[in-house]
Amino acid sequence: MRLVSSTVVGLTLISSLLGTLSPAFCQADGYEPSSDEQPQFIIYLPRGDGTKGTFGGVVPTGTLAQSDWFILDQKARQSILDENLSNAENLFKQGIQKAEAKAMYEPGVINSFCGLAFLYHKQGNNAESERVYEYAMRYLEGVSGGRDSARFADYLPDLAWLYNAHGKPDKAEVLLKSAIAIRERRFGEYSKELEKSLGDYAYFLRKNGRDTEARHLDARIKLIQSHVSE
User: Fold this and answer.
1) What gap in Å lies between CA 86 and CA 107, rounded to an integer?
2) Which of 36, 101, 130, 194 would you call most buried, defined as having the most Cβ atoms within 10 angstroms of its Cβ?
3) In this predicted structure, what is the pLDDT of residue 42?
4) Where along the chain do the CATH 1.25.40.10 domains lie?
5) Considering the domain 147-230 in this protein, what is its CATH number?
6) What's phi and psi for 110, nearest 5 deg?
7) What is the pLDDT of residues 12-60, one digit of tens each?
8) Which of 103, 112, 118 is nearest to 47 (CA)?
9) Per-residue burial over 42-56, b = 16 or more CB atoms within 10 Å of its CB, e = otherwise
10) CA–CA separation, 193 vs 210, rounded Å?
11) HEC string for the chain
């Protein structure tokens, strides 16, 4: 995966990407959420491998929970859980357009693109699922401070799970290792953030029959936990 550091590239591609995802979207009815439809909780999407993912899910705080794009995003996620995938697609795309119109890129545009990527995964459209999430990552690179930022690392695991689910464990492993390296540089070798990334990688190894390697990571995780508790 080639990620480019350019906010400008991301800005100019949003409209073209939305236009190529589904011609029917151009005729979709607009949706104007009201304040009483504000979600009271964050909807997390299942990764399909026994764990939970976020796929861009964010905890609503302050005015975020009342944002049009966020309400649409949450409705799209609930539609996925209800197996109403066509409705979810339209809601995600409407949310993306509203977020873009208000310059709410992260969270906002990127968040909903990640959810849309999960939707295409659910539909069995692996190529489109990866393309949309990769696009979100290229865009994130431009607005988050680059590929070495902590926020960039936050979004890597779910793309890795997509790759792994699509039979591309080598690409998945590269991303999980990248998340570990970023968080170790940013937060230190005994940080809770690093522990999370190590746990993700250990789980990946077990899913791919590499139990011995996973146990080595377990030992490192325990070392971090003991250091934190001191």
Assistant:
1) 23
2) 194
3) 54
4) 147-230
5) 1.25.40.10
6) -65, -45
7) 444 445 444 433 322 233 333 344 444 444 565 666 565 666 787 677 6
8) 118
9) ebebebeeeeebbbb
10) 23
11) CCCCCCHHHHHHHHHHHHHHHCHHHHHCCCCCCCHHHCCCCCCCEECCCCCEECCCCCCCCHHHHHCHHHHHHHHHHHHHHCCCHHHHHHHHHHHHHHHHHCCCECCEHHHHHHHHHHHHHHCCCHHHHHHHHHHHHHHHHHHCCCCCCHHHHHHHHHHHHHHHHCCCHHHHHHHHHHHHHHHHHHHCCCCHHHHHHHHHHHHHHHHCCCHHHHHHHHHHHHHHHHHHHC
Q: What is the C-alpha to C-alpha distance for residues 223 and 165, in angstroms, rounded to an integer? A: 30
Compute φ and ψ for 105, nearest 5 degrees: -90, -40
Q: Give every CB contact of residue 5 below 8 A, 6+ residues apart in sequence.
A: 141, 142, 146, 147
Q: What is the pTM of this model?
A: 0.79
End-to-end CA distance of the chain: give it in Å, rounded. 40
Residues 178, 180, 185: CA angle, nearest 5 degrees: 95
